[in-house]
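Workshop exercise sheet. Pairs work together: one partner reads the sequence aloud, the other fills in the structure field after running the prediction. Swap roles for the next sheet.
Pair: D.N. / O.F.
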Amino acid sequence: MSLFLWFLTWRPSSALSLLLLSVVGRQTGLEVVQATVCSRWGATRDKSLSQDGDVIIGGLLNLYYILSAVEEGYTRLPSYEPCTSLDIEALKYTYAMVFAVEEINRNSTLLPRVKLGYRILDSCGRYPWSLQGGQLVPLLICAVSSTSIMLSRILGPLSVPVISYLASCPCLSDRTKFPNFFRTIPSDIYQARAMAQLAIHFNWTWMGAVVANTDYGRFAIQVFQEEIQGKGVCLEFTETLRRETIVSDARRAALTIEALTARVILIFCWYTDVKKLFLELAKRNVTNRQFLASEAWSTSDDLLQDLAISKVAIGVLGVAIRSSTIPGFENYLRSLHPSHRPDDEFFREFWQKEFGSCSGTESLEGVQHPFTDTSQLRVAYNVYLAVYAAAHALHSLLSCPNRDSPPGNNSSTCSSAKHIKPRELLQHLNKVNVTTPQGEMFYFQGADIPAKYDLINWQNTPEGSLKLVLIGRVDGFDLHLNESAIQWSTGSNQVPVSVCSESCPPGTRKANRKGEPLCCFDCIPCAEGEISNTTGSLHCERCPSESWSNVEQTACVPRQLDFLSFNETLGITLTTAAVSGAAVTTAVFVVFIFYHKTPMVRANNSELSFLLLLSLKLCFLCSLVFIGRPSVWSCRFQQAAFGISFVLCVSCLLVKTLVVLAVFRSARPGAETLMKWFGPGQQRGSVCLFTSVQIIICAIWLSLSPPVPRRDLGFQGSKVTLECAMASVVGFALVLGYIGLLACTCLLLAFLARKLPDNFNEAKLITFSMLIFCAVWVAFVPAYVSSPGKYVVAVEIFAILASSYGLLLCIFAPKCFIILLRPERNTKKHLMAR
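Structure field:
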């Protein structure tokens, strides 16, 4: 990138000169080298602008440029065309320097009794032409950052200060390599960071880059890539432009931009290279790309006024050198006239180019011209600051703050304009910290100044050209942006989209595609129980144990409480079955009471039959305790009610079976005394005894380790199951085991008594009922263990109801059939028949 170099040196006469190298050149024979180089490269005329003074500030500017680039074929030695076109902007920079020097000379406090002078030459932006310049010899060049690197290294051993207004290479911030270098333009690190911030801010994750094949382009793209690393931004391509082969390079870059998918293109190049690229894009009618501009071309009038590229360049968003004002500078430029500056060859050429003659009647007053436009002073203000930096360093050096120190103290020695050493001047430049005439704090941080940029946007004008619009600023690392003021390349206020893959919406996560950049990915929905609540999430987060993901997988919501409720279909079905069973049992009970004197009721121990019906009714009703929200008391009561009700029921059946066996055994000789053990009192006592054992088991279980309500956070997804947790499996096993023991005993005895001679043998009914009972509860165990959540409760209720219905139907249905529908069989004669 173009830059400006300042040197503060001394001259051997009484006045201080910043052009020490003229002496060095004569001593080392560099004039011979100069002559050789100039003859080889085709030197231009030796033009300069100078003013004598006590201290001379030397300036080397790119006042002339080559009108068109020459494509080098590498088949012969390179040959550069001479610089013949005068750069109006660079001429304005020249007079910004002159204006600053004259302003300082009028200031009676900054450098009293010291007059500043200047000597300004043209470098043409090329190494060979920089070797021209008469007394300055080939070392005074400042066209690109690499030139500043070379010059600073050469002048470093001499401690000659170099101040640049346009050298932005980050490498020049290294004080160990360039201790004598200063600049009034921020390092490219900051503009590259600002452009990376813009890409991240607007979510441009898929970009292209075109960079100059120079230190400027290479360093800038390197910093940009470092800034976007890990931020989700990728470069689809990086094209380089070389000045020597700009035509073919611009064509290749245009084809790449047209063919690939990135819609936002970053460009770190000089404006002349950008113009070639834009012209190639205009030929191909590529108008839907958003360009990010570096400060090297973001404010170029040459591009803004070119109607041929306006459709391509509309909407450019760029970083620009901050704009400032120089009071009085516009009036100064308008007052310039060749008649007042007879020795100024640069201005005379400008005047002849603009007016065609120097008759004396021409004037810049009231003329609208880029030369007199001071509305946005950017580089010119950097030149102005550089002069003031030199002046303040001289002021500090020539002042005597320790004048009153003891004579033996060396620090009391004061410098004078006749005896200034470059090393001393370098030390004072490092300490510059002043307020500019515009009220701005100015100081060096090593080689650099605090980074400040403008953010600009290229927008349409009624004439068809483009204009600059200020849409924000950069202050160090802070980005301040007015998005509503931006006109995009699409012509609307909608931010252009440039992505390889659309951002993953909340509820999904990124999954990188194998072998492709990180910016190209697929969106995978989060698994159940996991969420992502941000766009572009890399991972899904698991919800806390008490929560679950919503349907969209975007938020964790409290899990629903799930239990067997009276309001749900399953609960209603089981409740209906239980109530129906209890109602049928009650109906049977009523029938038995109504017909209690009939042989059918009296034949099979009516007291035990009524007790059995009561226990069956309790079995049906105890199932209702299992339905509803579990509580401490419901958890305890349900298992006790279940265990005791079924033991009472099975005990009645067991005693009934024993009575049947005893009756038929007593008919045998010598067995009369057997019936004494199975009288009504003994039967009631046996039932109470069997039931008491279960009551004791339940009492011990519930007192030591009872079931308790618990939230089951297992695999039930969005639901938390409320259940009665068995704190002691042993207690539950003893309850079931005791019921099973009685049931098996009853089944065995009933099976033995099934063939006893009788027209109505109840042992057969008990056998069938106990077979059903045992089958149900044997199947219950694996079903209970494997059922999830509330279905555990449903399985237990089903087992209770199924076994209860089995007992009720197998034992009492045949009896009710005879009592109600076959009353002729409900006689003692019929029952006693064999």
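Discussion prompt: The first strand starts at residue 5 and ends at 7. What would you look at next?
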